[in-house]
Each structure stands twice: as structure tokens, then as C-alpha cells.
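FORM 7B - TANDEM STRUCTURE REPORT

SECTION 1: FIRST PROTEIN
SEQUENCE AND C-ALPHA CELLS:
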Amino acid sequence: MKANTPMERLYNGIIKENPTFVLMLGMCPTLAVTTSAINGLGMGLTTMVILTMSNMMISMLRKVIPDSVRMPAYIVVVASFVTIVQFLLQGFIPFLYESLGLYIPLIVVNCIILGRAEAYASKNKVLSSIFDGIGMGLGFTLGLTSIGIVRELIGSGKIFGFKIFHGGATIFVLAPGAFFVLAMLVALQNKLKASSGKGKAAGEKKCAPGGCGQCMSKECNPLGNDREGGEKA
């Protein structure tokens, strides 16, 4: 995929540089609010909106903000959007606002948002920055929701509040459970990556040291040339 295209930015945030499972950023909200799937989804989407809007604004102002005060300027921009989103949640989704609590204002100093502002939005055009924010936000949402689903299911037998089975291991909805689930999901992702890498390596064509002209394999030498490079009679 061509660099800085919308699809490349989305793929980068969701898969290649997922903030939760690859970069291991934003661990405070990741471990604290994922006691349920709805909390993880709500926190992820909230962060995505703020990240996208902040990237857009910082990219628009990238040639105006002096380099010497860029970090304070970024924080002012992010804090403005956090305040707007906080009021919207408080007014329209009060149960989610109460569940997330202190972690909403702490989005101001979330390392994912400030990191993307510094590393990407301040150096790239508006459209690319918007999709970078959406991609990273979706990746963060995917990570938090996945952890929330596993913790809620194993801990209380529910998914998004719907009862799946009775009982559960209560430790998974407590603080230690967050570390257990995060470790399991990261290990699973690494295992899948390793398996995928081995499959690709096994599927690669192997030729003789002299190149395909020296190889008798039909895949590498479809014309049936001999090892000296001449055609068979």
C-alpha cells in the first residue's frame, strides 16, 4: 500500500502499529476501564474522536505553531476537545461518563494522542492526519474492547451485559485480571504473527545459489533449461 493513503493509515493503526497490542501505549486506561466490554468500547471510541479531531487541528496549525511551544500548544488543543467530549458524555451518555470517571480528563495527557500529534500530525497534511487518528483510534478501541470482552466473559459470564453462563472467576474483573488478559492476548497475537511468518517463509521459492538459471525446478525454470543455461535439445 502506498504510504500516507487512507487505507495505509487505517491498516497501520489497526494492525501494524496497534497502540495496545504492538506499541503497548495507553496502558493506564487499558488496564483500568476494561472491566466490561461496554467500558472498553466507550473509552476507545471517546479516545478515537479526540485523537482524530486533535490530529486534524494540529495538522491545520502545523505551520503556525512555533516549534519552541509545540507541546504546550498540543496539550491546549487536546484539552479543548476532551472538555467538549466530556460535556457531551455527561449530558447524553451519563452511565458511561460515570463508569469512565477520572480517565476521561486524563485523555489530555494520553501518550497515544500526544505521540501521534508530535510524530505524525505536525508533519503531514490534514487528510492523512485525520485517517491516522481514525486508524490509531480504531486500533485502540479494538484492543480495549477485546480485553473488556474477555474479562467480562470469564469474570462474570456476560458479554456487553448479556448473560452467557452463570458464575465466573471474579479475579478477572479485578485489577490482576487485566494483566492476565492483556498478557494472553499479546501472546496470542505474537503466536499468530510467528505462524504467519513461517508460512510465508515456507511458501517462498528456493533456488540454487547461482539463481533461477541454475535451478531445475519447474517453478523457477519453466522452459526446462539445463544447469549451464542452454536449452534442452
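SECTION 2: SECOND PROTEIN
SEQUENCE AND C-ALPHA CELLS:
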Amino acid sequence: MENIIIKPIGIIRTPHKDIKNMPIQPIAASGIFGHIELFSEYVPGLKDLEGFSHITLVYRFHKIQGYDLLTVPFMDYAEHGIFACKAPKRPNAIGLSTVKLIEICGNILHIEQVDMLDGTPLIDIKPFYPRYDNRENVKIGWLEKNKDLPLDALRADERYR
């Protein structure tokens, strides 16, 4: 199989300079603002995006070195397979976050609920559409025992440096 080459379309700017104490999911990052600096050649692709309240960002965990197929995620003390977690130390180090879209000014997208490091390379932007993106009657595996943890209190530590 041939390699896949992915070029960033922009850079995500956030107040998070270090992983320690970062929110572990966007839902836990209310009131934390950032912006996207979209590269100029991609600006025409923003047409009609301003009508959406939320967007899903696909990005690269650019500070991650290597990967672990077994990991202890932030919301547990037991080891799980990487594909049963949202932990960042993954084979392709791809991240996914749905954030609030505040405003678009030229090539700058102002966003809220940022849970990624400053300088994160942006791979793609997709509009969030609840009819397609939400599911009902789902099973959540090992997270079932932690489903009521207060997400706003959960923060990253240094385990994924």
C-alpha cells in the first residue's frame, strides 16, 4: 500500500502551550478561545460555513512522538487498546474536535472550546450537523463506569509527552 501524504490547510492557535492541565475534550473547554489561521489558498472553501454554530476539526497531534497500542487514558487507571480510547499517542496521531464557530474574518476562524496545543496543524474542517453526527442508543464500553465524571474538572497530565 502506498503512503498517504496530507498537507495542512492551516494552523490552530490556542492558549495551550503545554499539554499539562489542558481540557481533555472540547466540551470541557467552555470559555477557552482560539482561532484558526487558514492558508490563503483555502479561503474560498469557507463559503457558507458561517451559517454553522459548530465545526469539526481534523488535525495532527504535532508534539506526539511514536505511539502506544496499549495506553492508560485520562479517564481511567486501567490499560486499554489505543483504538478504544481517544488518547493522542496513536499510530497516525490524528485528532478530532468539534468546537464552536464564533466568527469568520477573512482567513481567520474564531473558535471556542479549544482542546489542542497552540500551533497544531489543521488537516480539515467539516460542518457539524447533529442529525448526521449524533447517535442514540449507543454503547460506550469501558467509559460506562466513568460517564458521570465532571468533564470540566478533567485535565490532561504529562502521560502523553
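SECTION 3: OBSERVATIONS ON SECOND PROTEIN
The helical segments are 130-133.
The longest helix spans residues 130-133.

SECTION 4: SIGNATURE
Preparer initials: ____
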